[in-house]
Amino acid sequence: MATLNYKHLRYFWMVAKAGSIARASEQLHLTPQSISGQITAFEERLGVALFQRTGRRLVVTEAGQRILRYAEEIFALGDELLDVLHDAHAAQAPPFRVGIADSVPKQMAYRLVAPTLTLEAPVRLVCREGRLAPLLAELSVHHLDMVIADRPMPARYNVRAYSHLLGESRLTVMATPALLARFAGDFPRCLDEAPFLLPGEDVAVRVPLMQWFEAERLRPQIVGEFDDSALLKAFGGAGAGFFCAPSAVVPDVQAQYGVAAVGEIPGLTEQTYGITTERKLTHPAIVAISAATQPAGAVAPARKKRRGG
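Structure tokens predicted for Transcriptional activator NhaR (309 residues):
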């Protein structure tokens, strides 16, 4: 029966992470010739090329990318095993892995996930942030227990998953006091021709926000577009432009970025969903998140919507 040479796998993993055999050899305290020979032997054993050379750079092939994903999981589990062996408490605290789409406001994400930190049976919270598509791919192979996003499960992805509405918040336009002084006037007319920071194309609220501008006959000057909500607020806090934030977290945004609320957009809301492979929630951490959602414009009572794959 064929077996996997884990030493070869680790050498491949290290080279892929380092970007070159020379850098990996320094980290492993081996000669480049030795590592090159081990990689060659590993490729011959697997029957696939793991790298291709582009100029002076080594680029991981498509087959190598597949193997790299498994290697990441294998060595992450190995590190976790060592943690468990050296920490008795960790053995009693299974990980709860949640992916958070970068379009979800960080303050909102914290409010939703915080109940998992006070469970009677503790879990070890592992947060992964990124674009929605890669997070859903990780969810589909059970590398994540839940994905928190600003939209339900998109129909274009062939993933069997279920969308659970966790929250809904109205939107408030915010700006620095200095910017407000420059563009004084009643809301929302003060936004006309004013610099504005727009959510990126991957953010669900972008289209309804643009439609609201059109309905109000507003022509703000779009000075930047951001998929990451935290980066957008950082630019807003620096005075680069007006921007939107969920009304539920306005006090947090004011305190963190030194900005002021300009006005709330009537009829426009931002929703937050928990996407899981469970139709009926059973994981204790996910149940705690769903149970702790609150109304009052911040987080509406949980309502579940199915999306079959």
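Residues 169-269 form a domain with the D-Maltodextrin-Binding Protein; domain 2 fold (CATH 3.40.190.10).
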